[in-house]
Amino acid sequence: MAMDQTDLKLLRIFLTIVEVGGFAAAQSELNLSLSTISSYVTTLETRLGFTLCKRGRSGFSLTREGQIVFEEAHRLFKSVSQYETKMRSLRDKLNGTLTIGLTDNTITDPGARKIEKTIARFVKQAPDVTLNVVTYPPNDLLREIVTGAVQVGICAFPKTVLGLSYVSLYPEMHRFYCSSDHPLFNQSDDGIDIDEVRRYRIVGRKFWLGRDLKDFAIAKPHAMVSDMEAEARLILSGAFLGYLPEHYAKQFVEAGRMRPIRPDQFYVEATFQASFDDSKQLDPVAELFLDILIDDFGAKRD
């Protein structure tokens, strides 16, 4: 059924009736008589082709179809309201400051390149907004989002925090590496198994909550880091083995300073997400950035 202004008016009346709990209660809310309200609902039912509610001595209740119409109409008007807010903000010119939080060493990741496109589109649409871009380790970035210091964070988050919303953007592949100074560098992958790896020191990440160690069944790592550069330093020393993002390690592999160990077995795929506090109404600046980001990555927002 193609919708027009009449349908929208009737749906708004129906929403009000449901929200206040019946026809009688809706009279003062709508400033309409009981017979007029009943007539409007009958007209809506006729246009839709099914019954929306039961009314009479037994009280007011929704049919199964009526419940569906109520839920969909609620979503529709919420979207319309958000659209009107955004258009009003664009008309009045967006200004202020937007703080975006990122994690370290993602600039070499092909999957992350759309972030630059998002920034360019955002600046074009909101030229008066000041961008504040900060970089934190994942756990610290989560804290900054929770406290409101960062409006939108982009990271492979180590855990889900209650009250935050997440939108999946792209995957990042991590492999297990040794340096050219490590005893395993010249050893064939065929001769390397978990027991062989466990003979050597392994780096752990504070924010991965043991995910980088579970394959090797060791009680604790031999070194701990909070960012990729620190992990790369330890691996390049020849004294440690550890995981690195494939795109970040590529420069060292091509220079002959590192190699992945058993890439068929030792790997972790991390999902980068955009996170924000959706429990509070995002300001129009953050909403615009988030909409562009989601569009650029072809993602979906719940």
From TrEMBL:
GO molecular function, one term: DNA-binding transcription factor activity
Residue stretches making up the HTH lysR-type domain: 6-63
Similarity annotation: Belongs to the LysR transcriptional regulatory family.
Entries under InterPro entries matching the protein: LysR_HTH_N (IPR000847), LysR_subst-bd (IPR005119), WH-like_DNA-bd_sf (IPR036388), WH_DNA-bd_sf (IPR036390)
Record-given protein name: LysR family transcriptional regulator
Domain of life: Bacteria
Keywords from the UniProt entry: DNA-binding, Transcription, Transcription regulation
Species this chain originates from: Thalassospira lohafexi
